[in-house]
Design brief:
Elements (H helix, E strand, L loop, with lengths): L1 H18 L2 E7 L3 H12 L4 E5 L17 E5 L3 H7 L4 E3 L3 E5 H15 L2 E4 L1 E9 L2 E9 H6 L6 E10 L6 H10 L18 H10 L2 E4 L2 E3 L1 H8 L9 H20 L2
Parallel strand pairs: 1-2, 1-9, 2-6, 9-11
Antiparallel strand pairs: 3-5, 4-5, 7-8, 8-9, 10-11
Helix pairs in contact: 2-4, 2-9, 7-8, 7-9
């Protein structure tokens, strides 16, 4: 039995990894916008995988607000909650409350059920840069990155890369620094996140979801961080809408390149 258990895990994992070495879309970061993007891309029939550094995908959605495991979603994004089967309760005019554990686990389940693959404990340390476009990821185990071990990575090729890493905007910073290119921002660089303004932050999260360089897209807090806009706190409608918009933009771009 011991041998069968180990062999089954090894055989199935490496089969899964091998089948995802070439993707339509690679998503970096498993927060809510990345999970929603993975769901919609998979639903559209795209081959998509999500790479999350932590043990559990979900980003900041798990913790709710200050470890009160409730979050808020505005009415404009409730249709996504309904599509994903996430329970919600109305609160005030134009808002609803959602259990953060229920909603986060639902996002993970629905994305994988639709056909997206999630790889946890992966760290993205670089991108593949070909013909002045981002065309894949350079990946390693997250513990290797954390411990600073000198271990060479592997490569995942992708038609498009979506950065959903949150506040740090790690992928965009790396691409701009290493390749001397200008991003589609007012300064041409990662402008950095501004302080909290919920109404503006929610609005600009969706507005700033875009392609910032050929093959490289941003969503969620990374979208606001790259374009120099506001954080928004424990309200997640903008995150959900950002993920859906990113998926639609990537799918349309992939279709144009056929």
């Amino acid at each position: 039995m011991e041998r069968v258990v180990s062999a089954g895990i090894i055989d199935s994992y490496f089969s899964k990894l091998k089948s995802n070495l070439s993707l339509d879309a690679a998503i970096v970061g498993g927060g809510p916008s990345g999970l929603v993007a993975a769901y919609y891309l998979a639903k559209m029939g795209r081959k998509v995988a999500l790479f999350e550094r932590k043990l559990a995908p979900g980003g900041g959605m798990w913790g709710g607000a200050m470890m009160f495991n409730q979050i808020m979603v505005q009415q404009e994004a409730v249709f996504i909650l309904d599509e994903l089967g996430i329970r919600h309760e109305p609160y005030g005019e134009g808002y609803c409350t959602v259990d953060s554990v229920h909603s986060t686990s639902a996002l993970i389940y629905k994305a994988t059920q639709a056909g997206a693959t999630v790889f946890n404990c992966f760290s993205v340390e670089d991108v593949v840069f070909q013909d002045n476009a981002v065309r894949g990821l350079v990946v390693n185990w997250a513990p290797v990155h954390r411990e600073g071990l000198h271990v060479d990575p592997l490569v995942i090729m992708a038609g498009a890369v979506l950065e959903g890493t949150g506040h740090d905007c790690e992928v965009c910073r790396l691409v701009a620094r290493k390749n001397g290119i200008r991003l589609d921002t007012p300064s041409g660089e990662v402008m950095g996140e501004r302080s909290l303004s919920i109404e503006l932050g929610e609005k600009t999260t969706v507005e700033n979801t875009k392609q910032v360089y050929p093959g490289l897209y941003v969503s969620g807090m990374a979208a606001n961080g790259v374009s120099g806009s506001f954080r928004m706190g424990p309200i997640f409608g903008g995150m959900l809408l950002s993920g859906k918009k990113a998926a639609e933009m990537i799918a349309a771009d992939l279709d144009r390149r056929k």
